[in-house]
Amino acid sequence: MKITLNGEPRDVTGRNLADLLEELGQGEARVATAVNEQFVPAGRRATTVLSPGDRVEIVAPRQGG
Amino acid sequence: MPTFYGTEIASRMMLGTAQYPSPKVLADAFRRSGAGVATVSLRREASGGGNAGQQFWSLIQDLDVAILPNTAGCHSVREAVTTAQMARELFDTRWIKLEVIGHADTLQPDPFGLVEAARILTDEGFQVFPYCTEDLVLCDRLLEAGCEVLMPWGAPIGTGLGLNNIYGLRSLRAHFPDVPLVVDAGLGLPSQAAHAMELGYDAVLLNTAVAKAGDPAAMAEAFAGAVAAGAAGHAADPMPPRDMAAPSTPVLGKAFLE
Question: Taking burial as the number of CB atoms within 10 A of a residue's CB, which of A43, B73, B107, B154 is the most buried?
Answer without folding.
Answer: B154
